[in-house]
Amino acid sequence: MVGQQFEQRDIVLQSHDNTLRRISEIHRSYDALQYPLLFCRGEDGYSVDIPHHNPITEMPLKKTVSAASFYSYRLMVRQDEINHLLYFRSFLSQFLVAMYAKIESERLNFIKNNQAQLRAESYIHLRDAVGRQDADANQLGQIVIDDVICAEIPDLNKDPLLYDIVKSNMIHGPCGSINHNSPLMKEGRCSKRYPRPLRKDTQTGDDGYPQYRRRSPSDGGFIIDINGMQLDNRWVVPYNPVLSRTFNAHINIEYCNSVKSINL
């Protein structure tokens, strides 16, 4: 989003002599230190100074390897060679999410540091809108999250199939004041933070996750009956309509727009 600050992760190492040192997530030793089970030999990870080589002459080029290329190479399946990373199942998934966030951070930093090269000065209307302060910078441009992730009850008349799938698989609990005996209740509150607040539009949250559009019945949202309880969009777990129709299962989809939304 325009004007949003992407914070660097605060990574602190403690040496054997108990001294502390901060490193970047693109330090070559970060992967092995953060994932010692994956890299038990302390293999170097990605860093910004890995040179490209000509595949024919093997001579180094002026270009350096991007994070996307580095991790694509590391995860590649090769004939007659065992890639041990691919055997770690759910742990590998956690590693992939973290590395994808690193890739996106590198791309954002490139855009930030190469504005002149990218001709950002040509975006006159956007710059003028922000300069006049006559618009919310976070709302400039088209939000496309709603086309991919939905946190609302479908219209029963327009899409009865998706309505039934969401009713069976994507309604949380309920818990909270409606059901204090739910196993999801911890210290009097829902551990998954439901019910979520109603809102007319999707907005970017401070924790790295968007606050999805959840319209109230007065704004066009729908009500669904679960065991005699009337529930609105506050109880919908975010989902992708295509995946839900395809698999008819509980598939929670979230948009990760910051490394802060990754729990390591």
UniProtKB/TrEMBL annotation:
Superkingdom, taxonomy of origin: Eukaryota
Region of interest (Disordered), ranges: 194-216
Domain (Helitron helicase-like): residue spans on this chain: 70-145
Cross-referenced Pfam families: Helitron_like_N
InterPro entries: Helitron_helicase-like
PANTHER family documented for this protein: ATP-DEPENDENT DNA HELICASE (PTHR45786:SF74), DNA BINDING PROTEIN-LIKE (PTHR45786)
Protein name from the UniProt record: Helitron helicase-like domain-containing protein
Organism from which the protein derives: Lasius niger (Black garden ant)
Source species taxonomy: Eukaryota, Metazoa, Ecdysozoa, Arthropoda, Hexapoda
